[in-house]
Amino acid sequence: MKILGIETSCDETAAAVVVTTDDAAKPWVVQSNIIASQTDIHREWGGVVPELASRQHLRDICGVVDRALETAHCTWADIDGLAVTQGPGLVGALLVGVSYAKAAALSLGKPIVPVHHLAGHIESIWLEHGPIPLPAVVLVVSGGHTSLYEVPAPGVYRLVGRTRDDAAGEAFDKVARLLGLGYPGGPVVDRRAKLGNDQAVALPRPRFTGPSRSKPHLEGMTEFSFSGLKSAAVRLLQTRQAHGPLSEQETNDVCASFQRVVVETLVDRTFAAAAALGARSVGISGGVSANSRLRADALTRGQAEGLPVFVPSLSLSTDNAAMIAAAGLRRFEHGAVSSLTFNADPALRMP
Ligand code: KG4
Ligand code: ZN
Question: Do both 238 and 324 map to the same domain?
């Protein structure tokens, strides 16, 4: 089966062709993965401007899909089905992908499935590595989400914890903005952190003692909070910046110290959930999974605890349509086919 995936939930217009194989170790193969990034447009405003995002998706969608088909050396006639991100995300942005995909499905008589954006991030791990030992605990960590899922069987996602306030990527972006490092913040903080001392600046580590809202028996060990850390970093920087701009080294030290606290929190909670749930593997996906320290620390912890850790390659970590095609394939495998009555849903919940 050959699937065209379409993703327009935020500021990337993306289309990809993913095909099934007979190889049980690698059942899905990416034939094309095209992304038109809007970063240069939004950078000027310090973050994503929803109206500008929708307009740019409209300009880009046709060309991006054409490129995805061309790169995969196929035409519409070869496509067996479509998968499109239904939500969550920016409603105007989602509408472009959903309307395009529904129009294509209707006019060409192809089956279509709507996909949850986070299911796409989770399936990016299977797309990269093939089947992984189950049950797995998967951390999805991006600009909009920080959530832990238990995956007991392929395509089954059970929420075990999420952030009570900000997403980790949001905190990276905010700290980078305060340091004048531009948008998006994650990649540049990651780079600068390599040059800094991660113990130079004292920042608080979020702690919870109460029961987890989603899984009371997990005693709060699976939930995240980054607003306190973000506020502490804001206060620290405002106090320090009142005496003049930070030196390059001080900036690097703030990046390294901030990144250390975020990564320690993410890794500790993911492995605590894995232990509590008897997981046989750990997955990490979403834009922040591109972070070099998160990858390195999670792999080291996995080795120490005898738990294999799976992370997608960088091109499948940040938003892309290959992961949406993969999540669509999973739904088609489970027999799902949708009518054309579904609509974009900015607050879509995971099924
Ligand atoms: O998954 P994604 O592309 O979009 C959302 O679904 O939100 O994630 C984008 C987020 C941004 O907050 C960005 O700063 C962060 O991922 N990010 C990183 C890195 N690369 C991207 N955060 C930390 N380190 C990185 N290397
Ligand atoms: Zn995402």
Answer: no
Print the domain residue range for 42. 2-121+317-333
Report pTM: 0.94
**In Å, what is the CA distance from 194 to each residue of 183, 188, 191, 255?**
18, 10, 6, 9
- Band (pLDDT 50/70/90 cuts) for residue 219 is low
Q: Which of 90, 190, 265, 318 to mutate to test the pocket of ligand 1 (most atoms within 8 A of CB)?
A: 318
Question: How far is the C-alpha of 310 from the C-alpha of 326, rounded, in Å?
Answer: 16
Which pLDDT value is given to residue 341?
A: 93
Rounded CA separation 307/29 (Å): 26
Q: How many domains does the chain have?
A: 2
Tokens of 268: 């500790």
Within this chain, do residues 212 and 168 fall inside the same structural domain, yes or no?
A: yes
Across the chain, what does the average pLDDT equal?
A: 94
Residues in the chain: 351
Same domain, 153 and 262: yes
Ligand 2 mean position, distance from CA 167 (Å): 11
- Residues in contact with ligand 1 (CB, 6 Å cut-off): 10, 142-144, 169, 172-173, 184-187, 190, 286-288, 290-291, 318-319
| pLDDT one-digit tens code per residue, 270-314 | 999 999 999 999 999 999 999 999 999 999 999 999 999 999 999
pLDDT of 222 reads 81
CATH number where 299 lies:
3.30.420.40
